[in-house]
TrEMBL record, chain A:
Positions of the UniProt region annotated as Disordered: 179-205
Stretches assigned to the Transcription regulator PadR C-terminal domain: 92-171
Annotated source species: Terrabacter tumescens
Domain Transcription regulator PadR N-terminal per the UniProt entry, residue ranges: 7-78
Gene3D superfamilies assigned to the protein according to its UniProt record, in alphabetical order: Winged helix-like DNA-binding domain superfamily/Winged helix DNA-binding domain
Name the UniProt record assigns to this protein: Transcriptional regulator
A family per Pfam: PadR
InterPro entries referenced in this protein's UniProt entry, alphabetically: Tscrpt_reg_PadR_C, Tscrpt_reg_PadR_N, WH-like_DNA-bd_sf, WH_DNA-bd_sf
Domain of life: Bacteria
TrEMBL record, chain B:
One MF term in the entry's GO annotations: ATP binding
Alphabetical keyword list: ATP-binding, Nucleotide-binding, Transport
InterPro entries attached to this UniProt entry: AAA+_ATPase, ABC_transporter-like_ATP-bd, ABC_transporter-like_CS, ABC_transpr_LolD-like, MacB-like_ATP-bd, P-loop_NTPase
Entry annotated with the keyword Membrane: no
Signal peptide bounds: none
Name of this protein: Macrolide ABC transporter ATP-binding protein
Domain of life: Bacteria
Keyword Phosphoprotein annotated: no
ABC transporter domain sequence ranges: 11-244
Lineage, top ranks: Bacteria, Bacillati, Actinomycetota, Actinomycetes, Micrococcales
PANTHER family referenced in this protein's UniProt entry, alphabetically: ABC TRANSPORTER RELATED (PTHR24220:SF685), IMPORT ATP-BINDING PROTEIN (PTHR24220)
SUPFAM superfamilies assigned to the protein according to its UniProt record, in alphabetical order: P-loop containing nucleoside triphosphate hydrolases (SSF52540)
Length: 205, 245
């Protein structure tokens, strides 16, 4: 997603000028995506160039120009609502890559990597839970949007802890030799593998 | 709010170990665990199955005795008590909430809550009055004269929490208290546990759900009977809001 879709979604409700688009966008996304006004005006200029928005009359007393959707813009945003989010384009998850590397790297205490991350994620989950209990008690116009964003972060953090639990239990069932044997690209590791197979099971901890 | 009996921590586990059997059959359930729970604090205990979570809870509640180390509840060293003294400590200071079998089916909610007080020598009328106060605090007064089978699972667990903290009890020990409940109802139960701790109780919550542990101030991790990590204390909601917004 880009700022473009966000602005089109807001303009589908009513015409707005740049500063208001910015404040509405931030309020409705729970402050998780801060924008600067320059970004908003640059995007509006591109949308106007592409025929998706148009100015409503001239500037007001304060020199602000409101924009509204064109038919093409309305069609663009309606199509966006119903198009699934493309997960292939999301950035790679550093944690996944870190653990994938950890289980295949010599000398890394994978269990400790998992534990350290789980503790940090649980702290995050706890902080989000506190925010959520606070948000529920203070209903205002944007409370629902704020709650939805918080819930998304809660679910993501919870899923991460569950995945880390799963990683830990999978590691617990794997003989340490299998972990070290995974380093197929490392000839030293391959040499080590037979010795590791006869070593004690406490090699990982 | 529960009465403040002492100003120190409500629960202290000092280098506590619990070993079952001996020699080749020896099993270490808990090894040199140290933990303090203060008034107003809810601490969650997490860890894989068999990591010692329930052992820790049983020791904290005086349901089991430590092989070594000290368990102190409200300033009283549990190991110094005989069986009668231990039972009295449990009745007066400690409340338990388990996943099920929480309430006695033939007693109403108010009778269930008042029972530990009656066992401790309170008159029926005084115990009922305290039970109704406990229900009022949790906004559950309308359940007072219902039997467990006339209540939903979530209502039963709320009543169980009311019972756990009736009278002057200050320590609530909860073992997977939301186990059989759906996520929304479970959250309501945890919210009440949280509120009771905010009002001055001390809580120890065993759970395998990160989402539930997130209601606690701190999370302690157990593995193979050893406390391997702890999250540390929480920031205040105000500072978090300032940061997030």
């Amino acid at each position: 997603m880009s700022v473009k879709q966000g602005l089109l979604a807001l303009l589908a409700e009513e015409p707005m000028y740049g500063a208001r688009l910015r404040s509405e966008f931030e309020a409705r996304t729970g402050g998780t995506w801060p924008l600067n006004v320059g970004q908003v005006y640059t995007t509006l200029a591109r949308l106007e160039r592409d025929g998706l928005v148009e100015p409503v009359g001239g500037s007001d007393d304060e020199g602000r120009i409101a924009y509204r959707l064109t038919e093409a813009g309305r069609s663009e945003i309606e199509s966006w609502w119903l198009t699934p989010v493309d997960r292939d384009s999301t950035p790679r998850d550093e944690l996944v890559i870190k653990l994938a590397l950890a289980v295949t790297s010599p000398g890394v205490d994978v269990q400790r990597v998992v534990q350290t991350q789980r503790t940090a994620t649980l702290k995050h989950l706890r902080d989000l839970t506190r925010l959520k209990s606070r948000a529920s008690d203070e209903p205002d116009a944007h409370d629902l949007a704020w709650l939805l964003v918080l819930e998304n972060l809660l679910f993501a953090a919870e899923a991460e802890v569950r995945w880390l639990d799963h990683v830990e239990s999978t590691l617990g069932r794997m003989p340490s030799a299998a972990l070290r044997g995974a380093r197929a690209a490392d000839p030293v590791a391959e040499d080590d593998a037979p010795r590791a197979a006869t070593a004690s099971k406490g090699g990982r901890s | 709010m529960s009465a403040a009996v002492t100003t120190g921590p409500v629960l202290v586990l000092d280098d506590v170990s619990r070993v079952h059997g001996e020699g080749e059959t020896e099993v270490v359930a808990l090894s040199h665990a140290s933990l303090t729970v203060a008034r107003g604090e809810l601490v969650a205990v997490m860890g894989p199955s068999g990591s010692g979570k329930s052992s820790l809870l049983n020791l904290a509640g005086g349901l089991d005795r430590a092989t070594s180390g000290r368990v102190v509840v409200e300033g009283v060293d549990v190991s110094s008590l005989d069986a009668k003294g231990l039972a009295a400590l449990r009745r007066r200071s400690i409340g338990f909430v388990f996943q099920d079998l929480n309430l006695i089916p033939s007693l109403t909610a108010a009778e269930n809550i008042g029972l530990p007080l009656e066992l401790d020598g309170w008159s029926v009328r005084r115990a009922r009055s305290q039970a109704l106060d406990a229900l009022d605090r949790l906004k559950l007064r309308e359940l007072a004269d219902r039997y467990p089978d006339q209540m939903s699972g979530g209502q039963q667990q709320r009543v169980a929490i009311a019972r756990a903290l009736v009278g002057e009890r200050t320590l609530v020990l909860a073992d997977e208290p939301t186990g059989a409940l759906d996520s929304h109802t479970g959250e309501g139960v945890l919210k009440i546990l949280r509120q009771r701790c905010d009002a001055g109780a001390a809580g120890l919550l065993v759970t395998h759900e990160a989402r539930h542990a997130a209601w606690a101030d701190r999370v302690v991790f157990l593995r193979d009977g050893i406390i391997v990590d702890e999250t540390g204390a929480a920031a205040t909601a105000d500072s978090l809001l300032a940061e997030a917004r």
